[in-house]
Amino acid sequence: GATDVSLSAGKLSPEEEEAEKNKLSEEQKNQIGDKPIYSFTMTVGGSAQPEFEGGLVTITIPYVLGADEDVDSIAIWYIGNKCTLENCENGEECDDTAHMLTSIMATYANGFVTFQTSHFSYYTVTRMTPAQRCDAYGHNYETTLVPATCVTGGYTLDICTRCGDKQVSVPVAALGHDWEVSVTKAASCTDKGTET
Fold first, then answer.
1. Is residue 55 a contact partner of residue 116, using CB atoms and an 8 Å limit?
2. C-alpha distances in angstroms, 182 versus 115, 150, 177?
3. Are 124 and 37 spatial neighbours (Cβ–Cβ below 8 Å)?
4. Contact at 8 Å (CB) between 66 and 126?
5. 18-67 pLDDT, tens per residue?
6. Does the reported pTM lie above 0.70?
7. Nearest C-alpha neighbor of 75 from the set 25, 18, 117, 39
8. Contact at 8 Å (CB) between 37 and 79?
9. Which residues, 6+ apart, have CB-to-CB distance to 127 below 8 Å?
10. N or C of the chain: less Cβ packing under 10 Å?
11. In 3D, which of 146, 139, 144 has the Cα closest to residue 160?
12. Torsions phi, psi of 66, nearest 5?
């Protein structure tokens, strides 16, 4: 038979938002700032279905880019429970009233932020510094080859397009001079010749 599927999405009410933010540390609250928290839920046959069994869903939410915001600084925070199944399986004690923030890459275009996730929960839009983006997602290096010359060694220079981190690798020794000898005056029985 057919199974009813219900999806819902929206901003938390001020009361719900305050209750969720109270589960965060002061540092985490500062990271969220005054950005709204969105709730995404799905029910299948009347039961909550937060996971997609290995699949991904693409979510697009409206977002007004501030005058001082860089498109590349936009990211999504997943606001999740600190207590995980792994904690329980390892016999660890955990505070299931505490939350953590996990960064998810996002794109911004035409007044909307788009991201992918494998589950529904609470999310908010945030800004990250270039260093934070590299910490979360790794560096995004562009490679330049600096060739060796006669007197200087060559190398590969990798520069991160996000944070400017530089890595020098694959050194190549200086090539040295390649002298070419040519006779400018031939020697004779009575005169010495010259070479340059």
1. no
2. 68, 20, 15
3. yes
4. no
5. 988 888 888 888 888 888 999 988 888 888 877 777 788 899 999 888 88
6. no
7. 117
8. yes
9. 69, 70, 73, 74, 75
10. N
11. 139
12. -70, 160
